Amino acid sequence: MNINVKTTQTQNQKIMILETDRLLLRPVTIDDKNEIFAYRRDKESNKYQGWIPETIEDVEVFIGKISKQINVPETWFQFVIVEKETQRIIGDLGIHFVNSENMQAEIGCTLNKDFQNKGFATESVKRAIDYLFNELNKHRIIASIDPDNQHSIRLVERLGFRKEAHFVESLCINGKWVDDLIYALIEKDWDKKSKE
Ligand SMILES: CC(C)(COP(=O)(O)OP(=O)(O)OC[C@H]1O[C@@H](n2cnc3c(N)ncnc32)[C@H](O)[C@@H]1OP(=O)(O)O)[C@@H](O)C(=O)NCCC(=O)NCCS
Fold first, then answer.
1. Ligand 1 atom showing the smallest separation from residue 144 Cα
2. Ligand 1 centroid distance, CA of 63 (Å)
3. What string of DSSP letters covers 83-105?
4. How confident is the model over 22-46, as pLDDT tens digits?
């Protein structure tokens, strides 16, 4: 798999692009709002998500809050996932830079339902993990998952994450207390897995 990081100089700003065989991961911009709204508003496909936009303005606020710089403690950075062949945005991938010595990150991925079950999430998350461990030198990556979200559980288990906790009614999402699974991957295990 191609693991290039491209940086493109645009208006004096470096734009970081992570590349895989079929995909480009590039930072979200306000121009992506319509495409993001189209799949993020789907209540059924996103039923385990804490955030489902009701209006395009909700997406504007969401994009406005995202850090413009990657790797800033206590912020989220958001990539959109672009299919190279069609140049369509097929989903997004968020990284939360957790403040424990800035050595840990949380990862989350959402695909447009028309592009699920084709391996795109696995390909995107794998590339983001490589980037976090190999280029940003992170030590541990976690994912927070609803116990009923079987697709997400399969995704992280496929990539070698270990289930570390099952918190009972620890999150209040849309007024309802829900359980939360914490999955984690540490750098030395990823190193072993990538050599398998
Ligand atoms: C979580 C989510 C991104 C996972 O997406 P996904 O489509 O299941 O994962 P992938 O894109 O990696 O596809 C993997 C599946 O495609 C299949 N597949 C088909 N063609 C494939 C190919 N060419 N390469 C790899 N896998 C392929 C795999 O066998 C696998 O199926 P399985 O899970 O039944 O074993 C998706 O369910 C989603 O967006 N959910 C809504 C948002 C959400 O809840 N996000 C989680 C918040 S943390």
1. 48
2. 24
3. ETTT--EEEEEEEEEE-STT-EE
4. 999 999 999 999 999 999 999 999 9
